[in-house]
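Action item from last week, closing it out:
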Amino acid sequence: MRVFLEIAVKKSRTVTQATRASIVANASVMILKKGLASVGMREVMAASHLTQGGFYRHFASKGELVAEAYQLALDHLFEMIERETKDKPAAKALSTVINIYLGQCEDEENTLLCPLAMLGSELTHCDPKIRSIAMDGHARLVVFIREQLIRLGRKNASVLASSITSTLVGAVTLSNIANQDDEARRILMSAKTSLKEQISGQD
């Protein structure tokens, strides 16, 4: 009897973990596409085929869910970056990151959406934990870019990496704000040209 109880408890925990993971994954996608303010818990739970009443069996608050969803989005971002740049020379790796990052606005399948750029100013109204996760994501991107610049022999790698990261995030944020598609494309193209000049060492 004890063995059966242990199996039942283990199965229940597995189901609970899977359900929680599903809620976080759905919330991550919805928040990136619609923004923090536009996504309600009823909508997230419905996407997970659950009732809103079951929310607090998995999370203490909406903030807890948002923090986990945001972290998941960042993890997906860096998994893609690592996958797409694996074994590539530094210059090619940087070019790949720039093209992927600046191209996310035109990605109809939303295979990559960076929460730093997609949520933008909404983050200023989030609690400190979520803002901390966002800044950790920013730091991870800076570190990745800095490592490639060091491989290229750039002496100002740290400063340049920070500048490149800010340009990437800022360009995508502004392109999302732009009212016209042409204006958005100009912002992204200008950023791409500037970044490639910085990486190559041109003035």
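Closing note: The helical segments are 2-34, 41-47, 62-85, 90-102, 115-119, 128-151, 157-177, 181-200.
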